[in-house]
Design a protein that fits this description.
- This protein is an alpha/beta fold and about 260 residues long.
- It has 2 domains: about 220 residues, Rossmann fold (3-Layer(aba) Sandwich); about 35 residues, no CATH class.
- It is built from 8 helices and 7 strands, in the order βαβαβαβαβαβαααβ.
- Strands 3-2-1-4-5-6-7 form a 7-stranded parallel sheet, with helices on both faces.
- Strand 1, helix 1 and strand 2 form a beta-alpha-beta unit.
- Helix 1 packs across helix 8 and helix 6 crosses helix 7.
- It is globular and about 55 Å long.
- The protein starts with 5 loop residues before the first strand and ends in a 7-residue tail after the last strand.
- The structure holds nicotinamide-adenine-dinucleotide.
- Nicotinamide-adenine-dinucleotide (NAD) binds next to helix 1, helix 4 and helix 6.
């Protein structure tokens, strides 16, 4: 497998994004990480990835609700690396609640972070990728980009939107060596999932243990969480030259969830 050179991964200070950063650095890609969190911890992760894998790892703290900051992140990565070969749109948040009580602010934030940020990042990298005849955009959507669950109106709408954006950009990039795919994970045990367990328990009137067994893992026929390394390996393959005919897909990595 032939990996490309430089990647930007949004929301990569934690969870799936950090897992993808690890997989990419291990494969020899320079990466720009992004996201919120404790500055000391972020810097420690950045340094560790550089030292472990002998690649360049940069950090940019752009807030994915802010188009100006997103453009600044992309131009910083282009200046530092010369070019961006792979863009992973991964930043995302969740909020669980019935529509009657769903806060407008949460709807707006989820739309901005989980959907619109991918428009802004993709717009900023697309011309360069087309010009060079190579580019990979990987959108971390969700099984919720393909099917719904109650109480996740904003998240499900944003992730379905992300799948639509994926297909459209795949068509626009197809003749220029630019592929665009969505990865649709089932449940991966990250802070995003851990945080929603008590909220789901409250919304459904059940215990937290019942949420894990009867709501989360009930959706996945394998009865196992998807592992971070599995998502990292899939993203790495989609980034490779050998994946050049794979475009416009919404690829499930969900333990069989969407199959039933
Ligand atoms: P996480 O909470 O561990 O990580 C989210 C990342 O996004 C963090 O780095 C965080 O700092 C960053 N982020 C949040 N708001 C941001 C903002 N405004 N600007 C910049 N960065 C911001 O969550 P995760 O589970 O790793 O989720 C990553 C992606 O995977 C999300 O898009 C999520 O919807 C998707 N996903 C997760 C699961 C799962 O089960 N964990 C399943 C399917 C899809």
């Amino acid at each position: 497998m032939t990996p490309p050179l430089n990647a930007v991964i949004t929301g990569s200070t934690s969870g799936i994004g950090l897992g993808i950063a690890e997989a990419f650095a291990k494969a020899g890609l320079n990466i720009m990480i992004n996201g919120f969190g404790d500055a000391t911890e972020i810097e420690a992760n950045r340094k560790r990835l550089e030292a472990d894998y002998k690649v360049k790892v940069l950090y940019h703290g752009a807030d994915m609700t802010k188009p100006d900051e997103i453009r600044d992140l992309i131009s910083n990565a282009e200046n530092a690396f010369g070019q961006i070969d792979v863009l992973v749109n991964n930043a995302g948040i969740q909020f669980v609640g019935p529509i009657e009580e769903f806060p407008e602010g949460k709807w707006d934030a989820i739309m901005a972070i989980n959907l619109s940020s991918s428009f802004h990042t993709s717009k900023a990298v697309f011309a360069g990728m087309k010009k060079r005849g190579f580019g990979r955009i990987i959108n971390i959507a969700s099984a919720h980009g393909l099917v719904a669950s109650p109480y996740k109106s904003a998240y499900v709408a944003a992730k379905h939107g992300m799948v639509g954006l994926t297909k459209t950009l795949a068509l626009e990039g197809a003749e220029f060596g630019v592929t665009v795919n969505a990865i649709c994970p089932g449940y991966v045990k990250t802070p995003l999932v851990e945080k929603q367990i008590p909220d789901t328990a409250k919304a459904r009137g059940i215990t937290e243990e019942e949420v894990v067994q009867n709501v989360l893992l009930a959706a996945q026929p394998t009865k196992k969480f998807v592992e971070l390394e599995e998502v990292g390996a899939l993203a790495l393959f989609l980034s490779s030259k050998e994946a050049s005919s794979i475009t416009g897909t919404a690829m499930q990595i969900d333990g069989g969830w969407v199959a039933h």
